[in-house]
Amino acid sequence: MSFFNTDKPFLIAGPCSAESQEQVLETAAGLAPLNIHLFRAGVWKPRTRPGSFEGYGAEALSWLQEAKRQYGIKFTVEVAEPAHIELALSYGADVLWIGARTTVNPFQVQKLADALRGTNVPVMVKNPVNPDIELWMGAIERFEKVGIEDVAAIHRGFSGYSSSVGYRNQPNWPIPIELKRRLPELAIICDPSHITGSRSLIAEVAQKAMDMHFDGLMIETHPNPDEAMSDAKQQITPARLGEILANLIVRTESTSDMSSQVQLEYLRQLMDAVDAEVIDLLAKRLEISSQIGEVKKVCNMTAYQPARWREIVAVTTDRAEKHNLSPEFIVGLYEKIHHESIRRQLTILGTTEEEIKK
Ligand code: PEP
Ligand code: MN
Asked: Could you tell me the CATH number of the domain that includes residue 186?
């Protein structure tokens, strides 16, 4: 059982930055009744521009240690240097997290992984600032390779010049979903605070994460959000977090409700039957494609014909619209089908499988 696969959702809360012992203790006191799994606070802050508040470092670690002693809540801090790791662990940090600006740099991530070799301290890896799933996975793998057994991912959105959805960072949901598809055992925690950048939008993104099967939430909380020394606009009070959690619909993959189970079983049988038909029809379509390939071979025609592809797009999107299906979806599907068709015809024209893959 992984450290992060506890009761869902795995909850992390606490201020963006540890600002004083009073602020840390007051936040912890507010969070204690909410049964969160981890208290978070930045003690070394990776600020975009110089001159901003950069955290209180080791001194702040002693405040977190005290909060842990008084309230029994485990704590996590962001580390970006091997020296941070050493200090954080010496003050009893239970979990470490890697910030978005660090995940982008494989040299730095490797240094951190090397510093953690042999410790088996749980590590959470935030997505890199750029929407690159390979870079995110690469960082996760570097920690796994040095023997860290409990690694989790944190989705905090991706930066862009401006966000199309009015958030501070674009969620790009398909990326964390693809990560979950590739690494089903990996816990993925959503950070609605850094995605939205705005306290009024945190509840809706937290719910979306639950709807999408995320394993947990990391939400910035501060006793006086407006006075926060960093990320003031996106922090909420522990009381507000309590309200959000009380209203959160936590979704599960299965249900114990018998009548819903029966209904689902029935609908899935219908769906399976449709899938069987879809596959049979695809096989039929590809068989026709092979026959076309034979004709093209005799007449020295090309496998790929742009005009024919445009015709397929026009005809299929037209039909899709009649069924209220999104044209993008249908064109995406047909790109794949057409690609397979061309591959078959190329083989008939004499190109080998290996050549097609090159
Ligand atoms: C943070 O969690 O306060 C933080 C700096 O986050 P990120 O690395 O996602 O910007
Ligand atoms: Mn922050």
From this structure: 3.20.20.70
Residues 99 and 217 in one domain: yes
Average pLDDT over residues 290-312: 97
Within 200-329, strands assigned E span 216-220
- Each residue of 247-271: pLDDT tens digit? 999 998 889 999 999 999 999 999 9
Enclosing domain of residue 148: 10-253
Establish how many alpha carbons lie within 13 A of residue 77's alpha carbon, considering only the half-sphere containing its beta carbon. 32
Q: Which atom of ligand 1 is nearest to the CA of 40?
A: 2
* Residue whose CA is at the smallest distance from ligand 1 atom 3: 16
37 lines ligand 1 (CB under 6 A): no
Q: How far apart are CA 43 and CA 254, in angstroms?
A: 40
Residue 147 CA, ligand 1 centroid: distance in Å: 25
Q: Helices (H), strands (E): how many in the chain?
A: 14, 8
State the pTM of this model.
0.85
HSE, CB side, 13 Å, CA atoms: give it for residue 30.
22
Instruction: Give the Å distance between the CA of 293 and the centre of ligand 1.
Output: 55
- As for how many domains the chain has, the answer is 2
Listed residues: CB within 5 A of ion ligand 2: 16, 231
Structural domain includes residue 1 = no
User: Same structural domain for residues 291 and 310?
Assistant: yes
CATH of the domain at 344: 1.20.59.10
